[in-house]
Design goal:
Elements: E1 2-8, E2 16-20, H1 22-25, E3 33-38, E4 41-50, E5 65-66, H2 77-88, H3 92-99, E6 108-114, H4 129-137, H5 142-149, H6 153-162, E7 166-172, E8 181-187, H7 200-216, E9 221-222, H8 223-229, H9 233-242, E10 246-252, H10 273-288, E11 292-298, H11 304-317, E12 321-325, H12 329-342, E13 347-350, H13 356-367, E14 373-376, E15 388-394, H14 411-422, E16 425-430, H15 435-442, E17 447-451, E18 462-467, H16 483-494, E19 498-502, E20 511-514, E21 531-533, E22 538-540, E23 547-549, E24 562-565, H17 569-579, E25 585-588, H18 596-607, E26 613-616, E27 629-634, H19 648-660, E28 671-676, H20 682-688, H21 692-706, E29 713-721, H22 724-741, E30 749-761, E31 764-773, H23 776-788, E32 799-805
Parallel strand pairs: 11-16, 11-17, 12-14, 12-15, 13-14, 15-16, 18-28, 19-26, 19-27, 25-26, 27-28
Antiparallel strand pairs: 1-2, 1-4, 3-4, 3-5, 6-7, 8-9, 8-10, 20-24, 21-22, 22-23, 29-31, 29-32, 30-31
Length: about 800
């Protein structure tokens, strides 16, 4: 029998070898899913390829079934998956499972049946209820079997199975994703070739079919789509089929994930001098099929998107595919429209805003080569594109590219890796590049391209700083809006222009404070305060999702005198509605943007000037082009400055600079008003002056002194457990093991253990240990040896160990 290497969807640090029965060997291709035995379970595996024969004495289990008729990923992706598994210390099978669309993991369903007659079954008056039910009914349901099997009853079932009294039957459920099939039609003979005169309805139907087919470049079209386009087709089709002019059959169709697309301006006839200049080396790199990484540092409004579109044209002209990554679904929605206006029917999209079925359909379009451009959020880095020529990472600095649970990968870094393996060109674009990326450009690892002027030489907005410490307080707190901001909004609305208001906190109030005991309402599962959402009349934890009614008594002293403190976007919306009752106001944050269509609806309304004031969190901070926005108000610039993270200053500058860049992108100049308690902080000062270089110089100096990235690499080991004492002891044990594993002399340093800034989250106490060093190989070696020799206490259920390579979030 032929042997195959299989990566199973289980926490194993290496692939397994299975034998394929002769009747299925011919059907097996790398990239297919197979059903294989693992212990007493049946589990999904991913076929990596054939392997050489093993020694005769080695017993190899057989592949049970083949789950696919075609591969789900190309063979060249396996090398990519293996690297990810090794670098991020994550099981290979779980890496592949993460990469693939959801809903592709069949479940094993176990059910118990009595094998003997009921009268012959030994009955005991002390039987548990489930035992009595099994004897009485002769079986348990799959749910009942699962409950018994996962508890104390498993041992009893195993004994009864050994005695032949019961049989445990395992079945495999199908995928949650089902192929969508519809009746489809195509023209199989032209009317002029026949010797009859078609009826008028038939002629119109044929014309409609031809028009749709021509527009979609598809031979077969959906009957449903045809009848929507031309209702009279339903009556004419049977006649056309009978006369042999039209063929009809049920075929697999792709679900349309696009819906309504925003409209965009046509391709400009000419480029700016700077755009032309930066595209010259990009074109050479694409033509040469040589791995090259460009950092495109372009100020806000300088035309980076047009550079992306022209570069994509170059790649497509060379018969290459294009991968475009964006950090937010909102940006994906905008970019879809821009790319679709240039490259209709060549685009696939991949992000969490799609349904399971839509995502699967988009994935299979790519596998089959039906689309050459992918636009998506971080998970799109796994898109099954073949022959990649160009990878674009827009807003490359954004922290959303880092996955914070499960496989903790950074999509920007994986984009660069994937390009290196496929000899593709990479464009990392941003108005505020990450310090690490910019440092790579300064040191020659990446090539720096710059766009220093806005389109049509429009000026950058004037930025005014309001010191909140100097504003008279109201009930002990500064007002939400300074007089300058209120007057600015009045003037902007009077001029018929639009306003953008930014606050990176959603909800109505940051927390509820008791006026009697002075304590706040905390989440029961996390060491954070609950946020008041006035519209929903509830308190919510933004970390674990726990909610409770807002009309509660103080949990500490039972007082009913609770008051909301601080502000979120919901309160900003409420206050603005009171101050400007005639203004059309909308809000965009995680509470309002429940699906992709909401983004499109809001963006369309802003562009069509149906909204006067748009309020939002960081969703509105980057990449969006609203030409009629002339005023941006930043309610409070300090939210991220107080975070215990060495990147806090950099991220504050990036956020302020990005929000500032939304103003004055049309014919009128823009104005920005920033309210802050720290007007002298270098992040605020450099953002006011549009001085990216000044921020970089300050940050690089600080990090060189402290030995933080880009001058070192980090691995964060986080230990979590429900018991505070045991969690601390486990962290101390792990820190000791790390120190012993470091070979002297070495640049590696162990920092910690220490409680995480968010000490408790989702009922888990959290401790952290940082491993810091310059040599990537040394860091990887220590981490690998640590995980290979973990003591039982660090591998059990009570204590969880998370390994985060190149961490972005230190909370």
């Amino acid at each position: 029998m032929q042997l195959f290497e299989v990566a199973v969807a289980a926490p194993l640090d290496h692939p397994l070898t299975y034998a394929a029965p002769e009747d299925i060997v011919i059907d097996l291709l790398p990239g297919m899913r197979v059903l294989v035995p693992l212990g007493n379970r049946q589990i999904t595996g991913y076929l990596l390829g054939p392997v050489a024969d093993l020694p005769a004495e080695v017993i190899v289990k057989r592949i049970i079934d083949v789950l696919d008729t075609e591969p789900l990923f190309h063979k060249n992706m396996i090398r990519f998956y293996r690297w990810i598994s090794g670098y991020y210390k994550y099981p290979l099978g779980e890496v592949i499972k993460t990469a693939l669309p959801g809903g592709l993991t069949p479940r094993s369903i176990r059910q118990v049946f009595v094998t003997t007659k009921k009268k012959d079954f030994p009955v005991n008056p002390d039987f548990e209820p489930w035992q009595k039910k099994l004897v009485l009914q002769g079986k348990l349901t799959p749910a009942e079997t699962k409950s018994v099997w996962s508890g104390k009853g498993r041992h009893i079932l195993e004994l009864w199975q050994q005695d032949g009294l019961v049989e445990l039957v395992t079945k495999v459920s199908g995928d949650r994703i089902k192929l969508r099939k519809e009746k489809c039609i195509r023209i199989c003979r032209h009317p002029l070739d026949s010797a009859y005169k078609p009826l008028r309805s038939e002629t119109k139907t044929l014309a409609a079919i031809a028009e749709i087919a021509f527009g979609s470049a598809e031979e077969w079209i959906s009957r449903r789509e045809l009848t929507r386009f031309y209702p009279g087709a339903a009556k004419a089709l049977p006649l056309l089929v009978g006369k042999g002019l039209v063929e009809q059959e049920e075929r697999e169709v792709y679900r349309d994930p696009f819906g309504e697309r925003p409209t965009f301006n046509p391709r400009p006839d000419s480029l700016t001098d700077e755009q032309t200049r930066v595209l010259v080396p990009v074109a050479k790199a694409i033509d040469s099929n040589c791995f090259t990484v460009f950092l495109l540092h372009g100020i806000t409004g300088s035309g980076k998107t047009e550079v992306y579109l022209r570069a994509a044209e170059m790649a497509l002209a060379k018969k290459k595919s294009v991968l475009v990554l964006v950090p937010e679904i909102s940006l994906a929605s905008q970019l879809e429209g821009q790319f679709h206006s240039r490259f209709p029917d060549q685009i696939a999209i991949l992000h969490s805003g799609l349904s399971v079925g839509e995502r699967y359909d988009q994935w299979m379009r790519l596998v089959r080569g039906r689309a050459l451009i992918v636009i998506g959020a971080r998970s799109a880095v796994f898109a099954p594109l073949d022959n990649i020529g160009l990878i674009i990472v827009d807003e490359e600095h954004d922290g959303a590219y880092k996955q914070e649970d499960g496989l903790r990968y950074n999509a920007r870094d994986l984009a660069v890796l994937r390009a290196s393996q496929t000899l593709a060109t990479v464009i990392l674009g941003s108005a505020t590049p990450s310090i690490t990326t910019y440092y790579h450009a300064l040191t020659g690892k990446y090539r720096l391209l710059e766009l220093t002027k806005r389109i049509e030489n429009r000026p950058l907005p004037e930025v005014q700083i309001i010191d909140l410490k100097k504003i008279p307080t109201v009930s002990g707190a500064p007002p939400l809006f300074s007089n300058d901001l209120v007057n600015g909004i009045k003037e902007t609305l009077a001029a018929g222009d639009q306003v953008l208001i930014f606050l990176n906190r959603r909800g109505f109030s940051n927390f509820m404070l008791c006026q009697d005991c002075g304590k706040s309402v905390q989440c029961r599962q996390c060491s954070v305060t609950m946020t008041l959402h006035q519209g929903r009349r509830e308190l919510a934890c933004h970390y674990c999702g726990t909610t409770m009614r807002s009309d509660i008594c103080c949990p500490h002293c039972r007082s009913s005198r609770l008051v909301g403190v601080g502000s979120g976007t919901e309160r900003v919306e409420d206050e603005l509605a009171k101050r400007f009752p005639k203004a059309r106001i909308a809000r965009l944050d995680k509470d309002t943007a429940t699906d992709r269509n909401y983004y499109i609806k809001i963006f369309k309304a802003v562009r069509e000037r149906q909204i006067d004031i748009l309020i939002g969190t960081q969703m509105i901070a980057k990449g969006l082009h609203f030409p009629n926005v002339t005023l941006v108000g930043i309610i409070w610039a300090d939210a991220s400055l107080g975070l215990p993270d060495f990147r806090a200053g950099e991220r504050t500058f990036q956020l302020l600079a990005q929000v500032t860049g939304r103003a004055g992108r049309g014919e009128k100049p823009g104005r920005v008003i920033i309210q802050t308690h720290q007007p002298q902080h270098y992040s605020v000062v450099t953002a006011q002056a549009h001085d990216y270089q000044g921020m970089v110089d300050r940050e690089l100096s600080l990090r060189r002194e402290l030995g933080f990235p880009p001058f070192a690499r980090l691995i964060n080991f986080r230990i979590e457990g429900e018991e505070e004492g045991r969690t601390r002891e486990a962290a101390e044990l792990l820190a000791g093991l790390l120190k012993k594993l470091i070979r002297k002399p070495s640049s590696l340093i162990v920092l910690g253990p220490a409680p995480a800034p968010l000490t408790r989250l989702r009922s888990q106490y959290r401790w952290q240990i940082l491993l810091k060093g310059i040599e990537v190989e040394a860091l990887n070696d220590v981490c690998t040896r640590l995980l290979a020799g973990l003591p039982p206490v660090l591998k059990g259920k009570a204590i969880k160990l998370m390994v985060d390579v190149d961490p972005e979030n230190m909370l």
